[in-house]
Design a protein that fits this description.
Layout: E1 5-10, E2 13-16, H1 18-21, E3 25-30, H2 34-50, E4 72-80, E5 89-94, E6 100-111, E7 119-126, E8 129-130, E9 136-139, E10 149-151, E11 160-161, E12 167-175, E13 181-190, H3 191-200, H4 207-220
Helix pairs in contact: 2-4
């Protein structure tokens, strides 16, 4: 059942909560900055009385700012080191399916390399363009013991792609390993998600910001004072 809401009259402009809630309305006159306060109060009251309570079962904590880690996830690529025999693709043209940014790469050893003097360098590529930085230099020495982590170089540029872009992993400078294995972890950020969350932080998306924007617009075109 629709609940009564408040229409705020700001001089010649009516800011209609009915557009937001689809409810019947009464009119309360207001001028100046009181318009925002009236609509804010009416909106909050209507939402509290017409919307069923939502239970937070996320286990998370509400924050005053957007989280820096929004949209970040990890691609895990298992690699048998002995299968890398020369310069070639270790992963060819994987499509994440969203606008993205590659942040970092790290190799985790799951089977140690025990034969000395073996090596291979892994680099990342978006489309046909190498990412600037991010190379992971694997050697017999750093691919042991079990659980060892080999961090890639810092990524500094050419690390963003569109929703249609692909990611490849290439090997180079190979002296073939005899044994050893691990997982290449590629940290990636979904920029569609990050951009959407950033938009939520814009003042125009908040309730008070929406009301103030309506008032500012009406003043700009000269239909209110």
């Amino acid at each position: 059942m629709a609940a009564a809401t408040t229409l705020v009259r700001h001089t010649a402009v009516q800011i209609d909560e009915q557009l937001l809630l689809g409810a019947s309305a009464t009119i309360v006159p207001s001028t100046g900055e009181q318009a925002a306060a009236y609509v804010q109060t009416a909106y909050s009251t209507a939402v509290r009385t017409t919307t069923a309570p939502v239970t937070d079962s996320t286990g998370g904590a509400a924050q005053a700012a957007m989280a820096a880690g929004v949209g970040i996830s990890t691609i895990a690529l298992p690699i048998n080191l002995a299968s890398i025999t020369g310069s070639a693709d270790v992963l060819t043209a994987f499509t994440p399916g969203y606008k993205f940014k590659i942040l970092a790469a790290t190799f985790a050893v799951t089977v140690p390399a025990t034969t000395a003097d073996k090596l291979a360098t892994l680099n990342l590529e978006i489309g046909t363009t190498n990412v600037t930085g991010g190379e992971v230099a694997l050697t017999s020495a750093n691919c042991t013991p079990l659980g060892a982590l080999v961090a890639g170089e810092a990524i500094t540029a050419a690390n963003t792609g569109s929703a249609a872009a692909t990611i490849s992993v290439e090997s180079s400078a190979v002296t073939a390993f005899v044994e050893g294995a691990g997982v290449l972890y590629i940290r990636i950020q979904n920029m569609d998600t990050a951009d959407a969350f950033a938009a939520l932080g814009a003042d125009g998306i908040t309730r008070a910001g929406l009301v103030n924007a309506l008032i500012d617009d009406s003043q700009a075109v000269g239909i209110s004072s």
